[in-house]
Amino acid sequence: MWEISKSFNFCYGHRVWTQELNKEFSLDSQCKCRHLHGHEATVDVTLRSNELDKSGMVTDFKHLNWLKQWLDDYVDHKFIMDKNDPLYTTMFKLNRDDVSLIPVNVQGYVGYVFEKRDKEEGYLSEYYEGFFIVDFPPTSENLSKWIYEFTKLKMKPLCEVSSVTWHETPKSVSTYNNEWGT
């Protein structure tokens, strides 16, 4: 079995509105991840194969350029927000019917962006462009599985995805793989 990995760096913001702390293990009760905040992230995608292609590779690293482009377009310098977050309607000061979300697809559902709104100019338009909407709390655990799932589908004709590791910070890392078949 061979494995290769490629890393992608970008900045993003999020809020983990579901954060709760176990008082037995935490030194304080501050749920800092419930606040709007950002990170400089690195995502490592590891691919594997039992055999090498005719070039002697698992696959060419360039075959992940689509993911780099996708991350640049939709995640880099964006705020990833759960559409179920209680602050969702407050942040946009809109009723849910007043805002149109457009699905973003990579081999199936991935997330949503706001529809371009011609009547809104300047800062308001830029505000909407700064969000990527998902339907789960954007923890590093959920984000690593999210990238794993759609990358697995996209790369299936070439090789397997072994794991995705989401470095929220250099010291806080989450890895998702499907070794247990879940």
Task: Characterise this structure.
The protein has 182 residues and is α/β, with parallel strands linked by helices. 21% of the residues lie in helices and 34% in strands. The protein is built from 4 helices and 8 strands, in the order E-E-H-E-H-E-E-H-E-H-E-E. The protein has helices spanning 65-74, 88-92, 123-129, 140-155; strands spanning 2-14, 37-49, 78-82, 101-105, 109-114, 131-134, 160-169, 172-177. Strands 6-3-1-2-7-8 form a 6-stranded mixed beta sheet. A two-stranded antiparallel sheet has the order 4-5. Strand 7 (160-169) and strand 8 form a beta hairpin. It starts with a strand and ends in a 5-residue tail after the last strand. The mean pLDDT is 89.
Which structural traits does this protein have?
182 residues; alpha/beta; two-stranded antiparallel sheet; 21% helix
* Uncertain stretches: none
Strand numbers in spatial order across the main sheet: 6-3-1-2-7-8
* Structure class: alpha/beta
- Percent in helix: 10-25%
Distance between the ends: 21 Å
What's the mean pLDDT score?
89
Topology:
Blueprint: E1 2-14, E2 37-49, H1 65-74, E3 78-82, H2 88-92, E4 101-105, E5 109-114, H3 123-129, E6 131-134, H4 140-155, E7 160-169, E8 172-177
Parallel strand pairs: 1-3, 3-6
Antiparallel strand pairs: 1-2, 2-7, 4-5, 7-8
